[in-house]
Amino acid sequence: MARIQLYDTTLRDGSQGEGVNFSLQDKLSIARMLDKLGFDYIEGGYPLSNPKDAQFFQQIADVELQHAKIAAFGMTRRKGVAAEDDDCMRALRDSQAPVITVVGKTWDLHVTEVLRVDLQENLAMIRDSIAFLKAEGREVVYDAEHFFDGFKANPDYALQTIKAAEEAGADIIVPCDTNGGSLPDWVEEALQKVQTEINIPVGIHCHNDCELAVANSLRAVQTGAIQVQGTINGLGERCGNADLISVAANLSLKLGYDVLNEGGIGHLTELSRYVYELANMNFRSGQPFVGMSAFAHKGGMHVSAVNRVAHSYEHIEPETVGNTRRILVSELSGRSNIVAKTSKYQLDQDQQLMSRILNRVQDLENEGYQFEAAEASFDLLVMKEAGNYHSQFKRIHYRVNVKTVENEEPVTEATVKVSVNGEVYHEVAEGDGPVNALDQALRKALTVCYPNLASLHLVDYKVRVINSTEGTAARVRVVIESQDEKEVWSTIGVSENIIEASWIALIDSVEYKLLKDAGTFAPERVTATAKN
Q1: Are strands 411-420 and 394-403 parallel, antiparallel or unpaired?
Q2: Are the beta carbons of 42 and 35 closer than 8 angstroms?
């Protein structure tokens, strides 16, 4: 089927999202990955906006891209200034980007009230800007800003603006749903009219203020658009842009269009998480196709069906987009959840063990535990119920002190006393808060015997009050996310004492690391003891 161009603007439109800030190196790294997967256009930013964007265009020019074209973004010339004398036009030219994306006003409201120019001057600004850049030998993408709002308000003038862009030599017209307020039927109606008025290709650029950016983009393609503009993970101003992860997956897997390089769709999950990581943002677990919950099954009836026929509750195979199936364990679980979750241990024939695990899960969740968010703690629970758990150390006691002095930062000190194979280790450490101090003291106590703990890092810490009606006596649930050079895992602790809850989760994290490195979670290690 036909190729649909994917135009990525994560580095420009995406960086305008709240809390998103890419370094120059981040932008270069993302550009390389997008090129590797087969994105057609990568918009690097506005070269006159800030030094970082200007440096990006300088440095990306020395990168040998295999597929993508780099685009620079900018406005039309200013009113009353010739294009060749306009600072923006010159900056776009001097960026050396082979593609220039020019955004111009389509909605007469914006022309008269925002730009404060007359309607004819706006048309001249569009023509002059595109003609100047075409004369410089550039491919020009014309983004018709607020097109759908402008088309509803004054369709004749909106069409005049895109005709002006076509007459000046634009290579493609991209109507933009800049306010994100359009419905798919409105997009289809407008694009049908556009295509009767111009003779060059059209694209689509949608924002997500009605959570319809992906739907509107797909409808645009089905109406004749050959290019979709958007961002990875839907990053962008206000509610974000069309998520090119979902766009690419739907175009390829649902509609049969050619997008990305061969095999590129299988790396969408990797791409999504890579961009989140560089943006220093948490993954969106419920994100379609690539989120951790996209193929997660919790209800016992669902899990039982998935075990028999995977596609009975999955619209695609998770591996198609580089994701994985997850079976969650909670008080809603049936035996099928436990069987599926422990399949790697080959315990499905031990019905008594399955029942013990299920009963223990339900008892603990009644106390406030949630194992769907702490799979490492669940693995330890399985080991304990199978009779195969051997603690690598024993807690004797711990103590945490917080010293406060007026006008100074609090100082937190933790003392930990543990035994390993009968040998007692007693250590003290300071930290940035009680959990960090406990972590540091525990490491000091154990690293002599277990040097591999040096690669263990705590990367996230979450606390939630379970029974808030109890006030300060309420139970709290602590979830700690840890990682080493190979894996990321989560553990959980629950107590009325936040320090104790943190300690329980911390101990599970360390135990999991030690047992994992020792190969204790290998199926034969669990099965042998469990069947005795």
Answers
A1: antiparallel
A2: yes
Q: Which residues contact 63 (CB under 8 A, 6 or more apart)?
A: 28, 31, 32
pLDDT tens column, 168-198: 999 999 999 999 999 999 999 999 999 999 9
Shortest CA distance to 324 belongs to which of 345, 306, 305? 306
Beta strands in 149-199 (DSSP E): 172-177
pLDDT of 464: 83
pLDDT score at 532:
43
CA 481 – CA 463 distance, rounded (Å): 12
Q: Which two tokens stand for residue 410?
A: 């609090």
CA gap 215, 218 in Å, rounded: 5
Phi, psi of 425 (to 5 degrees): -125, 130
Superfamily of domain 5-261 in CATH is Aldolase class I (3.20.20.70)
- What are the structural domain ranges in the chain? 5-261, 402-449
Question: How far is it, in rounded angstroms, from Cα 257 to Cα 239?
Answer: 27
CB count within 10 Å of CB 500 equals 15
- Residue with token string 């290998």: 522
Rounded to two decimals, what is the model's pTM?
0.70
Q: Return d(Cα 220, Cα 218) in angstroms, integer.
A: 5
Residue in the block written with tokens 């009050």 = 465
Lowest-confidence region among 45-49, 270-274, 386-390: 386-390
Residue 121 belongs to what H/E stretch?
A: helix 119-135
Enumerate the β-bridge partners of residue 429: 414
Burial of 423 (0-12, 13-18, 19+ CB in 10 A): exposed
Pairing of strands 296-297, 326-327: parallel
Q: How many CB atoms lie within 10 A of CB 175?
A: 29
Burial of 196 per CB tally in 10 Å (0-12, 13-18, 19+): exposed
Strand order, beta sheet including 394-403: 394-403, 411-420, 423-431
DSSP 8-state code for residue 251: I
d(CA 368, CA 467): 9
439-496 pLDDT tens trace? 999 999 999 999 999 999 888 888 888 765 555 557 888 989 888 887 888 899 999 9
User: Given 3.30.160, 3.30.2310, 3.40.50, 1.10.10, which CATH number is that of 402-449?
Assistant: 3.30.160
Mean pLDDT across the chain, nearest whole number? 89
